[in-house]
Amino acid sequence: MATPRQQLGRWGEQAAASYLQARGYTLLAHNLRTPHGEIDLLMRKEDRLIFVEVKTRRSTQFGPPEGSVTLTKQAHLIAAAESYMQTQPADIEWRIDVIAVYRQPGGETEITHFENAVHG
Fold first, then answer.
1. What residue ranges define each of the domains in the chain, with the CATH number in brackets?
2. pTM for this prediction
């Protein structure tokens, strides 16, 4: 059985996927595993692949959700994306985005999308 933290993370990933799909993105994969780690969401918009890291919080007591994408996490995301891209045609453009999901007390959801947030 999933822990409350895992349940919150899954809920945040679903919220992020729905948010992006409403903006014209297509979901290609959820929890994509690579030799260098997991990518929360793999999306496509037009001719570009977008690797998405989702961070979900119930409280900002320890900072905003996006603040937990450390330099170490960024390096893992870059390595995972580059590993996946080795299986794709060389001319496909890609980027890494971060989605911050904040589930406010009372149930309201605030989503912030940081495009091209992680650079290799």
1. 4-118 (3.40.1350.10)
2. 0.92
